[in-house]
């Protein structure tokens, strides 16, 4: 199967998954108890005002008609209006998603850059004390709950050592003296574009603990899978023949072995995106990071149904897109994949 046909099949599957996701998000959200019209109007609303809001929001129509209207708006990029902020949900998410993605992407990059070499080192040193230490540390990294890890990092690095700030994205004083100009929504990018280097280093300082909390779990998964995949590949006949011909172990592991072990590693990297998007909810709550997780928490507390639907669909779409991209990259690395 050609790469073009493979990509087209994955994109067709992507559209189908997004349609299924839209159905699940819409009907599950509708099942949550609460009167959307009353929440939209606000407290002390009169019955006639609530009824008017219900008609304006289309809630007086059958649920199937409501879904079709929702899909019609969704195709136009309209996720509805937040009951809490009275702003378009898409506009709210456009401000919040980059703040979460900069944590997720940075954590993923760190996890990959550290996890693959650690797993490779454990495979090369199989059976030694170094292999045992790496296996123990990565098992602990996978097992520790994210909320406990985040609180532990705050206790050690803020309360005991005072190295990093407790929470937030920027020092409160710098929000007035060196405010971040909103250009792309990514703090790192915006501060560099505007040459606001004071804010850049302060944001980086605030990001260390949240990124550390997010990185640990995926790093453990990637390192352990890299080790097992490499050990499996290194027992193949062509590797044994290359070793017998005098090829060094370093070349065998990192030139021949790692390339053929990349396919399952790429799979777990794609799945790590889902893990990171889930964990960012806990991290943003604990570190008071103003991203999509914190936005979703406020939406849950206030029963902001349009915002909840927007968050759920957006996160699901990011996960589906990440896994589709992973499949295409795997096909590029290993043409045998069909």
Report on the structure:
33% of the residues are buried. α5 (89-124) packs antiparallel against α12 and α10 (197-233) packs across α12. The longest helix is centred in the last third of the chain and has 39 residues, at 249-287. Helix content is 76%, strand content 0%. It has helices at residues 3-30, 36-41, 47-56, 63-75, 89-124, 129-143, 146-160, 174-177, 187-193, 197-233, 237-244, 249-287, 292-301, 305-333. By secondary structure, the protein is mostly helical. The protein is built from 14 helices and no strands.
Number of H- or I-type helical stretches: 14
Mean of residue pLDDT values? 77
- Head-to-tail CA distance between termini: 7 Å
Beta-strand residue percentage:
under 5%
Residue runs with pLDDT of under 50 for 5 or more positions: none
The overall strand count is 0
Instruction: Provide the gyration radius in Å.
Output: 24 Å
- Major β-sheet profile: none
Based on Cα principal axes, name the global outline: globular
Helix content: over 70%
H/E order of the elements? HHHHHHHHHHHHHH
Assign the structural class, choosing from mainly alpha, mainly beta, alpha/beta, alpha+beta, or little secondary structure.
Answer: mainly alpha
């Amino acid at each position: 199967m050609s790469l073009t046909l493979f990509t087209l099949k994955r994109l067709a599957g992507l559209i189908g998954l997004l349609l299924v996701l839209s159905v699940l998000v819409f009907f599950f959200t509708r099942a949550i108890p609460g009167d959307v019209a009353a929440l939209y109007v606000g407290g002390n609303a009169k019955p006639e005002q609530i009824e008017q809001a219900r008609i304006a929001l289309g809630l007086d129509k059958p649920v199937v008609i409501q879904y079709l209207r929702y899909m019609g708006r969704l195709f136009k990029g309209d996720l509805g209006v937040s009951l809490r902020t009275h702003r378009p949900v898409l506009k709210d998410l456009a401000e919040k998603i980059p703040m979460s993605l900069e944590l997720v992407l940075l954590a993923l990059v760190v996890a990959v850059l550290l996890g693959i070499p650690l797993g490779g080192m454990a495979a090369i040193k199989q059976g030694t004390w170094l292999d045992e230490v790496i296996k123990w540390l990565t098992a602990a990294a996978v097992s520790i709950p994210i909320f406990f890890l985040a609180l532990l990092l705050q206790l050690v690095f803020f309360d005991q050592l005072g190295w990093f700030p407790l929470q937030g994205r920027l020092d409160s004083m710098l929000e007035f003296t060196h405010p971040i100009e909103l250009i792309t929504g990514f703090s790192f990018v915006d501060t560099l574009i505007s040459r606001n280097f004071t804010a850049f280093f302060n944001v980086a300082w605030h990001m260390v603990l949240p990124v550390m909390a997010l990185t640990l779990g995926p790093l453990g998964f990637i390192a352990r899978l890299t080790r097992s995949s490499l050990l499996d590949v290194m027992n193949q006949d062509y590797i044994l023949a290359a070793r017998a011909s005098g090829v060094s172990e370093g070349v065998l592991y990192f030139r021949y072995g790692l390339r053929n072990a990349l396919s399952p590693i790429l799979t777990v990297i794609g799945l790590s995106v889902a893990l990171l998007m889930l964990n960012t909810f806990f991290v943003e709550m604990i570190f008071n990071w103003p991203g999509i997780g914190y936005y979703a928490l406020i939406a849950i507390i206030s029963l902001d149904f349009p915002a909840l639907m927007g968050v759920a669909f957006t996160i699901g779409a990011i996960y589906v897109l990440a896994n589709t991209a992973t499949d295409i990259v795997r096909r590029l690395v290993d043409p045998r994949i069909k």
